[in-house]
Amino acid sequence: MTSPAERTAVASVAVALAVLALKAAAWWLTGSVALFADALESVVNVAAALAALAAVRYSHRPADANHPYGHAKAEYFSAVLEGALIVAAALVILQEAWGAWQQARAPVYSPVALAVAGLAMAANAAWATVLTRRGRALRSPALLADARHLWADVVTSGGVLVGVGLVFLTGILWLDPLLAALTAGNILVSGWRLVRESVGGLMDESVPEALLTRIRAVVSANAEGALEAHDLRTRHAGRLTFIEFHLVVPGEMRVVDAHAICDRIEAALRQELELENAVITIHVEPEGKAKAQGVPVL
Q: Which stretches within 105-254 are classed as H helix?
């Protein structure tokens, strides 16, 4: 049975192919270098959507002997690949823009082409909205990376439409390759951000400071009976959040009582922070292991 994230990724491939067809038609009708750049970015969108689908499908495999922590990190590789594809597309666009700059040529005026390009932009904006919501709800780095790239594509397409319209109105031919070059610059920035965030996930960056503060507060408020918590460590791995810390309890406390405190903390973390996919590890220690810099128990 396919997961919601996988079904969303399949839909992304279909949307990317439809948008690519529309943008390619707009370019074919006009011969505009800027519209060519916009269409080429959609080629990247198709490749990225396919990579996201493969990553999402693989990431939902259950943990096994070789991957005891699961396969959730596979989604980060998709985002890294998407960033690399963006860079490659930007280089091709810059090459075409330079050639058009040296030998300026007027694109063919076509209101139909502009309407088709506008329809493609609207479809991308609508699907980017859906992807952003589902990516956040499913905590999928691959879907969120795809959504961010689509939003960058929407901004680019809007600029290209305005620019090509100005070329038709003013007859200033150098606007066309200039817009193509600006498109390349915009998607390069988008690619860099994707790679930066994905590498952070692969390098086990801690959760954001705001979430870390909330985790400390929940632990402190629900550890009654313990003395303190210390050595709190966190990381994200796709849809999973890993939380681990040491819990100091009185030396004479029974194991069953210490275990009950751990269960209470885990339940509170999942419920209050909505971390249903959290993997929580608590190491219980006697009071002699307390540290002054630990999380105090309220």
A: 111-138, 141-170, 175-202, 209-222
As annotated, the residues of the chain forming the CATH 3.30.70.1350 domain(s) are 209-296
Between β-strands 278-286 and 240-249, what pairing exists: parallel, antiparallel or unpaired?
Answer: parallel
3-state SS track over 55-122: HHHHHCCCCCCCCCCCCCCHHHHHHHHHHHHHHHHHHHHHHHHHHHHHCCCCCCCCHHHHHHHHHHHH
Question: d(Cα 15, Cα 17) in Å, to the nearest integer?
Answer: 5
Say whether domain 209-296 belongs to CATH 3.30.70.1350.
Answer: yes
Q: Which amino acid is at 49?
A: A
In contact, 154 and 125? CB cutoff 8 Å: yes
Low-confidence winner among 109-113, 154-158, 184-188, 213-217 (lowest mean pLDDT): 184-188
Quote the tokens at residue 264.
């209470």
Two tokens, residue 123: 């479809």
Burial (CB count within 10 angstroms: exposed 0-12, middle 13-18, buried 19+), residue 123? middle
Which phi and psi angles does 139 have, rounded to 5°? 50, 55
Q: Does domain 4-202 have CATH number 1.20.1510.10?
A: yes
Rg (CA), the chain: 25
Tokens of 133: 């919501």
pLDDT reading at 283 higher than 90: yes
Q: What is the pLDDT of residues 208-238, one digit of tens each?
A: 888 889 999 999 999 999 988 888 998 877 6
